[in-house]
Amino acid sequence: MQGVLKVGPGQSNSLFLACSGSGVLRGKKMSRFRRLVDASVNATKRALSGTFDDLMPPPERYIFNFNSKKELNKWHLYSDSELGGLSTASLEITESDNGPSTGIFSGKLSLDVAEDSKWSISRGGFCGMRSKKFNGFIDLDSYDTIAMKIKGDGRCYISTIYTENWVNSPAQMEDNSWQAFVYVPKDHWYIAKIPLARYLPTWRGNVIDAEIEMNPSRVLGMSLSVNAEGGVPGARTGPGDFRVELDWIKALRQNEL
């Protein structure tokens, strides 16, 4: 049994703006102040009612586990096709009786742009999968590393963490984004470990030249994307097919609190 999400020319994705980081957060059910108050009250209740062991978080925490096609409900796809590009992408999860299920993010990167494009871009060449917003946020303040069990194609991918806006002007209402490169060796399962300190603050794909610290206690979502150009030295680049297989994504605590 398979579940599949697809995006590409002719396959409109009205959620692209939200996935690319330029969407507008709407319909907040409570103000930021109310969420901060609730979080403080809940933490105080736990401290008063539990032991120290109860308060100590586990050394690792699953964020995503690609073991069921229901996982597709947590993700959006986006690509340059929303801007007139010709790249395509899909995310599928195959459930097997003979082995564990995994997610497969694959597609084709193209630098070409449709002649009738309404957007003024000179070339394409990117695709990504972004998680839908968590129910509120997840608190990763007790962790220092993001780990992914992946098998790929020798390309370099981009891991992005989205946090509640506290860097940009409140009037912009965009999520803050923090990005790090992930090199994925070809044809071998590999556990990539990325310290949170390695994630750089970015705005619409450009690194913000400022000393800013991430707020890991307000994580709203994550994404994994691929570009035809750029990346780390030695990685495969250029247009053409891409394919990365995902088992899970976790938060780890490598250092003692």
Automatic annotation (TrEMBL):
<dbReference type="GO" id="GO:0005739">
    <property type="term" value="C:mitochondrion"/>
</dbReference>
<dbReference type="GO" id="GO:0006120">
    <property type="term" value="P:mitochondrial electron transport, NADH to ubiquinone"/>
</dbReference>
<dbReference type="InterPro" id="IPR013857">
    <property type="entry name" value="NADH-UbQ_OxRdtase-assoc_prot30"/>
</dbReference>
<keyword id="KW-0143">Chaperone</keyword>
<comment type="similarity">
    <text>Belongs to the CIA30 family.</text>
</comment>
<dbReference type="GO" id="GO:0032981">
    <property type="term" value="P:mitochondrial respiratory chain complex I assembly"/>
</dbReference>
<protein>
    <recommendedName>
        <fullName>NADH:ubiquinone oxidoreductase intermediate-associated protein 30 domain-containing protein</fullName>
    </recommendedName>
</protein>
<dbReference type="GO" id="GO:0051082">
    <property type="term" value="F:unfolded protein binding"/>
</dbReference>
<feature type="domain" description="NADH:ubiquinone oxidoreductase intermediate-associated protein 30">
    <location>
        <begin position="64"/>
        <end position="245"/>
    </location>
</feature>
<keyword id="KW-0496">Mitochondrion</keyword>
<dbReference type="InterPro" id="IPR039131">
    <property type="entry name" value="NDUFAF1"/>
</dbReference>
<dbReference type="Pfam" id="PF08547">
    <property type="entry name" value="CIA30"/>
</dbReference>
<dbReference type="InterPro" id="IPR008979">
    <property type="entry name" value="Galactose-bd-like_sf"/>
</dbReference>
